Each structure stands twice: as C-alpha cells, then as structure tokens.
Amino acid sequence: MSNRNSHVLDVEGLGVSFDGFKAVDGFNFYLAKNTVHVIIGPNGAGKTTVLDLICGKTRATEGSIKFKDRELLGTKEFKIVRAGIGRKFQNPSIYENLSVFENLELSHPSGRGVFGCLTFRRTPAIIEACESVAKQIGLAYKLDTEAGILSHGQKQWLEIGMILMQEPEVIMLDEPVAGMSVRERQETAALIRRISENRSVIVIEHDMEFVKEIADRVTVMHMGKVIAEGTMETVQKNEKVIEVYIGH
Ligand code: ADP
Ligand code: MG
C-alpha cells in the first residue's frame, strides 16, 4: 500500500490513550506529495488528536510517523516544525497591532527566536518572500494594513501565510473555514488548491460542500479508526460511512 517515493508522510499503526481511552487506534495514513488530503468524521472521532500526534504536541503511545523516511515519533515539536511540517491551530495567533507585512516578516525563519530577532535584517530576499506569500494568501493589497482590522477570514489567511513563510512541505489546517462567510469559504478553497501546487495539505473539515471542492483524497475517521479512504466520490458511497453519518 505504501509507496515511499511519492509520499511525504507514512503514518502506520498510530495510537494514543488518554486514561485508558483510545482516542486514536491503529491509524494508517499516507500523504502523497502536492495533494489536499481531508480528514472527516463525527465529533470526537480523533481528528484533532491525529494532528496533535503528527506535530508532536501529543506523544503517541504506539505506531510510527515517517516524514520522508525520517521517524518523527519522539521528536520535539519545534524540530518537527523545522523539518517542514506546519500546523495552523483554530485560534489565529497573529500580532494584531503589526501590519500584514510585519506579521509575515516575523515568521521568516531568519527572524526566529531571540537571537534571530536581535540580528534580524530586512533583506531584499525577505521582502520578496513576504510579497510572494501575501500574493498566495490574497492579501498583497493589504501589506501595510494593521492585522487587527482585517476581517475574520483575512486573519485566518494571514496565519496560513505566516506558516507558509517557513516553506513547509506539509501544512495542517484544523477546520480552516469555521466562522467564515460563503465568499470567504470559496476564497479559502482556492487558496488551499493554490498552496497545494507545491506542498501537501492536510485539512480537517465538516462542511461537505467545501470538502468536495478541495479534496484529492479523503480519510474518514470514526472512534479513533479509519473506516474509509479514497476519493470523495468513493468514500461517499461507502456503507460504513453512510451509517456513521446517518447515525449522527
Ligand atoms: P475530533 O477532532 O475528531 O472532534 P478529538 O481528536 O478532539 O476529536 O478528540 C477525540 C477524543 O479524545 C475525544 O473523546 C476527546 O474528548 C478525547 N481527547 C482529546 N484530547 C484529549 C486529552 N488531551 N486528554 C483526554 N482526552 C482527550
Ligand atoms: Mg477537532
């Protein structure tokens, strides 16, 4: 099943227990290069926990997470980020009183950490990187705008941009369109398609119309396990999936 050459992530037999309760159990997940892979499933299925395990926020009790053949299990969170896996959390952590440009600039790898800040120089390469990311997130015309006055959707995009500044090979988004307007949802779908042209994107999402629009692959979770995997078309016809969704 696993073809290591075309995968960036090979997750096998992943599991974690909280006080004896198996939140994630025997989870297998293969992330192909330059694809959008959506994880769906009812509330409490273990979707967010899977992202916590991949980014090292939660330590798995069993299994393996290979990032291009490098084992991530047991690796510290900041090292996983440096290796090339970025994660967007549900609440944006942007600096409201700084401009869009400054928020992006701060996220440039050379600006990282206290030492990085003291020695930071605004080089043409950094300016170019900020402008290029701003274009990708649809905020090129807002570079000088204070982040605090952006719309809810624009703040979410800015945070995605801050992750893109680190040039991750994998970016993970947990319910990225929650609270967004219809128009913002459409723009976010286009944004996700755009950024997946040269990286892989894992998205957790409930809105099925949105999933249909963005997903190359879909993994369906239920009670910590994978119950179906494939294209949206095949997964939608799966009997176990229909049962779980009607049951909820
Ligand atoms: P989903 O994102 O699919 O809605 P979660 O991954 O957030 O589900 O949660 C899966 C299950 O694991 C839930 O029953 C939740 O209560 C439990 N859980 C998640 N994180 C923890 C934790 N840190 N401690 C105890 N239980 C947790
Ligand atoms: Mg969740």
User: How do the strands of the widest beta sheet line up side by side?
Assistant: 6-7-8-3-9-10
The ordered H/E elements are EEEHEEHEHHHHEHEHEEHH
Give the bound compounds: adenosine-5'-diphosphate, magnesium ion
Provide a count of the helices: 10
3D structure, described in words:
Helix content is 36%, strand content 25%. A six-stranded mixed sheet has the order 6-7-8-3-9-10, with helices on both faces. Strand 1 and strand 2 form a beta hairpin. The relative contact order is 0.18. The mean pLDDT is 91. The chain binds adenosine-5'-diphosphate (ADP) and magnesium ion.
Identify the notable features of this structure and list them briefly.
binds adenosine-5'-diphosphate, Rossmann fold, 36% helix, binds magnesium ion, 248 residues, alpha/beta, 10 strands
Strands, helices and their partners?
Blueprint: E1 7-18, E2 21-32, E3 36-40, H1 47-54, E4 62-67, E5 70-71, H2 77-83, E6 85-88, H3 100-106, H4 113-118, H5 124-136, H6 152-164, E7 170-174, H7 182-195, E8 200-204, H8 208-214, E9 217-222, E10 225-230, H9 232-237, H10 239-247
Parallel strand pairs: 3-8, 3-9, 6-7, 7-8
Antiparallel strand pairs: 1-2, 1-4, 4-5, 9-10
Helix pairs in contact: 3-5
The site of magnesium ion has 2 residues, from α1.
Concise overview:
With 248 residues, this protein is of the alpha/beta class. It is built from ten helices and ten strands.
